[in-house]
Amino acid sequence: MRLVIADCSVSYSGRLNAHLPLARRLLMVKADGAVLVHSDGGSYKPLNWMSPPASMRVTDPDAEQAEAGISEVWTVSAEKSDDELKILISEIHHDSSHELGTDPGLVKDGVEADLQRLLAEQIERLGEGHSLIRREHPTPIGPVDILAKGPGGTVAVELKRRGDIDGVEQLTRYLELLNRDPLLAPVEGVFAAQQIKPQARTLATDRGIRCVVLDYTEMKGEESGNPTLF
Amino acid sequence: MRLVIADCSVSYSGRLNAHLPLARRLLMVKADGAVLVHSDGGSYKPLNWMSPPASMRVTDPDAEQAEAGISEVWTVSAEKSDDELKILISEIHHDSSHELGTDPGLVKDGVEADLQRLLAEQIERLGEGHSLIRREHPTPIGPVDILAKGPGGTVAVELKRRGDIDGVEQLTRYLELLNRDPLLAPVEGVFAAQQIKPQARTLATDRGIRCVVLDYTEMKGEESGNPTLF
DNA sequence: CAGTTGATTTCGAAA
DNA sequence: TTTCGAAGTCAACTG
């Protein structure tokens, strides 16, 4: 990885055209050819960038550019398309290269897949007398996250990390479809999420859909053979 | 902006939990408190990060951490939530700070600038017998998007992506000014946009301003030497 | 000012 | 390989 702090102007042409006026910025050149142009603010998104795989060519400025005080020109080209990032460098204030090696990668925890696995294992969190039928129950309009057998019939569960209106709508469509199947009907809907927004709760309740808030930490604890219910 | 190359492990807890095993990475600390953890590959997204506003606390390792070879601990806390990024640093290979100043920001040449260029090239879309005088014609109250010569005199064009009342008002002010210039008068107004709202159309018509709806896709097609009118 | 939509989205998993 | 959906999405636009 090469890190350069430089006064530069940047222009990108590709799916759109964008331009950055002259200012001091960080230029990051990654091992796979990716180039990132960062300012000293904003979130994690660079001002401008080139996605890998890409290759960079450094050239001298032409007469006009040299006249304008430009010392070198970086041309970064994508290998898969004709996207191009052109960086006109006026002055370099810092330039260093570093060997980083390949990264072992991120381990994520607490995504929807985790929740689904845990709820399938702890299906009693839907209430007493529930048993798992299957996960990812296929329907023509997509898979139902969890299908269970409850005391009063079948239970369809829509699972989200954050429960929003969209999730309720999705579950409603599933329920309509599932209730046409005489082998399953009547099918009750359960909207389960770590956090359920008030609007979603209101809509769900209005449609006779039960809301269940899941405590991920607690479920994780119970899974690891350390039940919190004792 | 502070740039650190270090052997480190990182863990994030907040909306989810994520962990990065020990490896050499770039740590970027921005002026607004944002912290980015980058590897030497991937696109612009960091492996892990903290969004601004945030604050960082550097502490010594506890006994157990020191035993594991950790030399210092960075704790980055979000100010708006209880999200936390913890970086355990084993060894620092590079450490430098740089003053960047505030960035003037990105200029996107999106559809709007494109529209002006295309209409200038395809000025006949205003009607037969039109020829371009200039783009961005300067006036004391701002530049007129396009000035053209029409069959009945000068034509001033105000260009918008979405034609709203505001645009008509703007054009009206230009027209009043331009019509005082005996070299240009009489100046006809044309309000050109991809979409013109009914209210804007009514107002424009009432003021004798002609409305022209532009088909961006069609204009783009004609530009690429692949005219759709054949 | 809140809700909605697009992104040079990126990223991963499943088909 | 392609497609599809989620994301610690973010940022701009619209009402």
Tags for this model:
seven-stranded antiparallel sheet, alpha+beta, 5 helices, elongated, DNA-binding, five-stranded mixed sheet, 230 residues, 2 domains, homodimer, Trna Endonuclease, Chain: A, domain 1, Protein Yojf, Chain: A
How is this structure best described in words?
- The structure is a homodimer of 230-residue chains.
- With 230 residues, chain A is an alpha+beta fold.
- Chain A folds into two domains: 2-97, Distorted Sandwich (Protein Yojf, Chain: A); 112-223, Trna Endonuclease, Chain: A, domain 1 (3-Layer(aba) Sandwich), CATH 3.40.1350.
- Chain A has helices at residues 63-67, 112-121, 165-178, 198-206, 216-223, and strands spanning 2-13, 17-29, 35-38, 48-50, 54-59, 72-78, 84-97, 107-109, 131-137, 144-150, 153-163, 187-196, 210-213.
- Chain A has a seven-stranded antiparallel beta sheet, with no helix packed on it.
- In chain A, α2 (112-121) packs across α5 (216-223).
- The longest helix of chain A has 14 residues, at 165-178.
- The first copy, chain A, is elongated, with a radius of gyration of 27 Å.
- The mean pLDDT of chain A is 90.
- Chain A binds a DNA duplex (15 and 15 nucleotides) through residues 12, 14-16, 18, 42-45, 48-51, 83, 111-113, 161.
Question: Which topology of the largest domain in chain A does CATH recognise?
Answer: Trna Endonuclease, Chain: A, domain 1
Count of DSSP strands of chain A: 13
Report the total helices of chain A: 5
CATH architecture annotation of the largest domain in chain A: 3-Layer(aba) Sandwich
Strand percentage of chain A lies at 35-45%
CATH class of the largest domain in chain A: Alpha Beta
Helix/strand order of chain A: EEEEEHEEEHEEEHEHEH
**Low-confidence region ranges of chain A:** none
Number of domains of chain A: 2
Q: Main interface pair?
A: A-B, 51 and 50 residues
Spatial sequence of strands, sheet with the most strands of chain A: 4-3-2-1-7-6-5
